[in-house]
Write a structure and sequence with these properties.
The chain is mainly α. It folds into two domains: about 1-40; about 65-135, Orthogonal Bundle (Cytochrome Bc1 Complex, Chain D, domain 2), CATH 1.10.760. Helix content is about 50%, strand content about 5%. The chain has helices at about 1-35, 80-90, 95-100, 105-115, 125-135, and strands spanning about 65, 70. The chain has a two-stranded antiparallel sheet. Strand 1 and strand 2 (about 70) form a beta hairpin.
Length: about 160
């Protein structure tokens, strides 16, 4: 008889465990259904979110030129500047233009490469304006050694 009551206790324990697991499953299923039906319940309502305003002052003119340099891009002011800004800085930084100094042939080859591989649109009549601007303002530069240092007070390292 003892074995029978012990077996009953074990069955009741297993039953309680299964009932508890089933209850957890039901709670999890309800939570998942609630999240699926209302995914924004943890977010603030639109009326509670403070809008962010960007103030553009008069001094923040995007086409401002100072000391012959276009402030926003760093490009040199010259004929064709805005054509270069409008066509080149849509895809990459103007820094990429200023660090690459090439002759006309190389600039045209670079434009063709961008058209073939980078989805650059057909520049039409603007291509001549852009290339002329780049060749005039960003031609190749000879790179040589730095100047010899002068007027330096050297000191001896001691052991």
């Amino acid at each position: 008889m003892q074995e029978h009551s012990k077996f009953k206790q074990q069955v009741k324990a297993i039953y309680r465990l299964m009932a508890g697991l089933f209850g957890l499953f039901i709670v999890a299923a309800i939570g998942i259904l609630f999240l699926l039906s209302n995914p924004d319940w943890t977010r603030k309502k639109a009326s509670e979110v403070e809008p962010e305003y960007v103030s553009i002052q008069e001094s923040d003119d995007f086409d401002k030129i100072e000391n012959g340099i276009h402030v926003r891009t760093g490009l040199i002011e010259a004929d064709g500047l805005m054509t270069v800004v409008n066509n080149c800085t849509n895809c990459h930084s103007a820094k990429l233009v200023t660090q690459n100094r090439m002759n006309e042939e190389r600039w045209i080859a670079t434009i063709r490469w961008m058209q073939e591989t980078q989805n650059l649109w057909d520049l039409g009549n603007n291509e001549a304006i852009i290339v002329n601007y780049l060749v005039t303002n960003y031609p190749p530069q000879k790179k040589g050694r730095r100047e010899v240092l002068s007027d330096i007070e050297w000191y001896e390292l001691k052991d």
